[in-house]
Amino acid sequence: MNWKDVEWIRSLWPGKLIIKGILDIEDARLAAKTGATALVVSNHGRRQLDGAASSISMLPRVVDAVGSEIEVMFDGGIRTGQDVLRALALGAKSCLIGRAYIFGLAAGGEAGVARAIDILSKELDVSMALAGIRRIDEIGRHVLAG
User: Fold this and answer.
1) What is the average pLDDT score of the chain?
2) How far apart are alpha carbons 46 and 88 in whole angstroms?
3) Of the candidates 128, 138, 39, which has an alpha carbon nearest to the alpha carbon of residue 84?
């Protein structure tokens, strides 16, 4: 696929369009320019390129470049509520939780998925409390040490 393909899809699809796999600032700008609703900062678990940058290292750069133009979502390494806090602090508006829900699904079906989400939510609540934060909209880069 290339950016002309994305423009073509956008011309056919009036709904929300989310582009996953953005690790580059120029690609983030192109995603916003093509009319995507959101982008997902993701290296797909480094399955395609084992030398790719980590998603978390690229997240703040992408947010700084396009965060006011397009919703920036995050995917990569979310295992705990503290991971969610970190991604939100770096500017993500939301996080994908692939492995957490898959593990929950494997362990307990639908109830397992609900339990995995509940665990992440409670861990996020504790992490926020330990950082002195009461609301999601209070999370910012100031939360991160150093």
Assistant:
1) 93
2) 21
3) 128
How would you write 13-49 as a 3-class SS string?
A: CCCCCEEEEECCHHHHHHHHHCCCCEEEECCHHHCCC
State the pLDDT confidence band at 122, using cuts at 50, 70 and 90: very high
- DSSP-derived secondary structure letter, 50: T
Can you tell me the distance from the alpha carbon of 105 to that of 9, in angstroms, rounded to the nearest whole number? Answer: 32
Q: Is 97 within 8 Å of 117 (Cβ atoms)?
A: yes
- 142 in active site: no
Query: What pLDDT was estimated at residue 48?
Result: 62
25-to-16, 22, 61, 84, 120 alpha-carbon distances in Å: 21, 8, 7, 22, 29
Stronger pLDDT, 78 or 49, i.e. the higher one: 78
Tokens describing residue 72: 């920036």
In single-letter form, the type of residue at position 38 comes to: A
Q: Which of 20, 29, 33, 44 is labelled catalytic? A: 44
Tokens 């492995």 correspond to 99
pLDDT at residue 47, as a whole number: 60
Provide the edge-to-edge strand list for the sheet that holds 71-74.
18-22, 38-41, 71-74, 94-95
